Amino acid sequence: MTSRHRPPGVFHRAARAVTVGALALAGVTALPAATAQADATTSGDVIANLWSYNWDSVASECTDVLGPNGYGAVWVAPPAESLKQTNYYWWDVYQPYSYNLNGRFGTAAQFASMVDACHDAGVKVYTDAVINHTAAQTGTGYNGTTITNKYDTPDWDPDDYHTSAECSDSDLIIDDWSNLTEIQNCELLGLPDLETEDDDVRSGIAAFLNKQIALGVDGFRIDAAKHIPVADLNAIWTKLDNTTAGSDPYIFEEVYPGSTPAASDYYSSGDVLDFTYASKLKSAFQGNVSDLESLSSSGVLTPANSVSFVTNHDTERNGLHMSYKDGDTYKLANVFELAYKWATPTIYSGFEFSSSDQAPPNSNGFVTDTNCSSGWYCLQRDTAITGMVKWHNAVGSESVSNWSTKSSSVIGFGRGSGGYIALNNGSSAATYAFATGMADGTYSNVIDNGATTVTVSGGSATLTIPAKSAIAFYDGEFTPCTTCEDDDDDSTSTVTATFNEYAATTSGQDVYVVGSISALGSWDTSKAVKLSSTGYPIWSSEVSIPINTSFEFKYIKKDSSGNVTWESNANRSASTTTSAVSYNNTWNVASANSTDVTFNVTATTDLGTNVYVVGSIASLGSWNTSDAIPLSSASYPTWTKLAIVPKSTTFEYKFLKKDNSGNVTWESGTNRSYTTGSSSAYSTSDTWK
User: Fold this and answer.
1) H helices within 191-229, ranges in order?
2) Higher pLDDT, 332 or 38
3) What is the separation of C-alpha 635 from the centre of its chain, rounded to a whole number of angstroms?
4) In sequence order, what DSSP letters do the residues of 450-483 get, joined into one string?
């Protein structure tokens, strides 16, 4: 039997050759590389995790939302009959009473109708499979099954479970999480642990899964997979039937982080849910999204073997990951997940809760229909998310490209020439120019369903991104650019010019660059390019400038009333070639008198603490810690930032740390010293002391 852990139609995995047939399965039309596009509404690989939805609600969601918006699959709650308690806790469904499909979310007939409805909408169905254990508590289940001995159920006899002999622990409880025997043969939270090394048990589990496959189920999320040996899982998979579509069922597994066993140990038995990925996203979106540039090398699982998520039903409650309670930041993290080329993405949708054990909305324990306006948080319906599902499907297997970090809160990147996205996790709108790699033309912003458009000229777009939001567009239907401005130059080619200006300002003032070409406003201060103050007192922005062009420019300050203050020095002169260029300047100081120093320091920090540089000269804050320059953690533990300083000058400096409360910790030792010469592009290589 072939490997069961690669779902048909998943076209972005490195280990799978992308053939014309594979593209067709994925909903992608094979066209020349420069123009290859998918119908953005065609189903791809995005999985909607509709956790605790009843079967009728899942069916409606497949028909009305998931199918029309291009979701590839729906992942639903465990369908087996489970423990029924007076308080109807959510976790009751992870305590199976029997493998009967009449349960908390509906009848077996409703389950079968749901699968059919989702298939009619072009959506695969994956169920949560609880096969490691049965219920720890006795009582009556949702189909009326009564259990008085937790080791004697309709499907299993007492000799089908591990005992203290196999567990090597008299209390049968996992209390040594470094002991593989305990983890896989003892009882998790008192749940009777099935003897999966026994062939009769394997056959019984396979029969339960095959019953679902016969009804059309396409795959399974394996609950508590780390508590089952890989060899046992693979032995069970050999007993599974093909799906009604004629393929192997897709298997993805819950392997909670830990060295014993490691998530990578399970790659041979299925894809693995990536808890580290979700943790990295939480850290970035509650800290610096600029850190995501190094996501692929930060310890996350390999994309060919994993399934990504932002949160799930466990981790949104225990605080390990984000939740709907994080508001727009949470939604933006899901937007990023859909945009970034990595593993198969999931979008989680569940019910609102005020206590961790709280049950979903129900009637006598049976879950009632989902009402997205009351008691449920239906992220899968959000306009930004449905737009990004289409974007994700359209860009297909294109690699991440044209990455741009504008600040710790603003990033942008493309997927080849197929699409581009810019995200702003800051508290106010941000305007930057982005080199998109996209064809010139006008595109619809999928985040707001086309209410706004984006114009790309010379491959670049100047975007004003709302706070806690994004702008995303892809190479689908758009209007080619035939009259785009070319910045007074006959060439349509541009280069990126980065303007860095050291300028102290008063409250309410911002710094702009204005110049002699239309890209810089043609000396019209109302069209000047606003610079970002993220690295205050250095103000920065990127602007697309025509190649081989000479121009003049100056910096100005504007206050909240629109009053303009010009620099007092002569106009600055510059010219471009065919390469990107940076201009590093100081307010009221001629360009010829300024240079730049990139400060690099290796320093470890706690979450929420950042590193700064401050020094004896004005451009380093004149020893005022409130004017210290924040360094970037993108290459952590190395912190980096470019500063503008006078040429041929000796100055002193030091590094310091600030936490979220503004508390300052200075490094120890004497002040550091540096001397600039008459050239440019100096740098330091320091270690925190």
Assistant:
1) 199-214
2) 332
3) 19
4) TSSEEEEBTTEEEEEEPTTEEEEEESSS-EE-SS
pLDDT tens, position by position, 443-485:
999 999 888 899 999 899 999 999 999 999 998 755 555 444 4
Annotation says 510 is catalytic: no
Give me the phi and psi of 500, to 5 degrees please: -120, 120
Unique residue bearing structure tokens 């999928």:
446
Q: Which of 193, 253, 475, 596 is catalytic?
A: 253
Q: Are 160 and 105 in contact (CB under 8 A)?
A: no
Closest CA to 673 of 645, 647, 646, 654: 654
Q: How many angstroms from the chain centroid is the CA of residue 100?
A: 37
Topology of domain 400-586, per CATH?
Answer: Immunoglobulin-like (2.60.40)
Considering the segment(s) 591-687 as one domain, its CATH architecture is Sandwich (2.60)
What φ, ψ does residue 35 adopt, rounded to 5°?
-125, 5
Radius of gyration of the chain, Cα coordinates, nearest whole angstrom: 29
pTM: 0.68
Q: Helix, strand or coil for residue 420?
A: strand
In the numeric block, which tokens belong to residue 446?
Answer: 């999928």
Tell me if 20-395 shares its fold with 591-687.
Answer: no
Q: pLDDT tens digits, residue range 300-319?
A: 999 999 999 999 999 999 99
The pair of structure tokens assigned to 593 is 């008198």
Active site residue 223: yes
pLDDT tens digits, 284-293: 999 999 999 9
User: Over the stretch 231-244, which tens digit does the pLDDT of each residue have?
Assistant: 999 999 999 999 99
Beta bridge partners of 552: 573
Angle value at C-alpha 655, between 650 and 660, nearest 5 degrees: 145
The residue with greater pLDDT, 36 or 136, is 136
Strand 250-253 and strand 219-222: the pairing is parallel
Nearest to 643 by CA among 598, 588, 679, 592: 598
What is the arithmetic mean of pLDDT over 610-638? 87
Region of residue 541 (left: phi > 0; alpha: psi -120 to 50; beta: else): beta
* Residue located via tokens 């009632």: 368
Q: Which CATH architecture has domain 20-395?
A: Alpha-Beta Barrel (3.20)
Hey, what are 658's tokens? 């600030």
Residue 480: the pLDDT is 55
Choice among 223, 254, 475, 596 that is catalytic: 223
Residue type, 194: L
CB atoms within 10 A of CB 494: 24
Domain-wise residue ranges, the chain: 20-395, 400-586, 591-687
Would you state the pLDDT for residue 183? 97
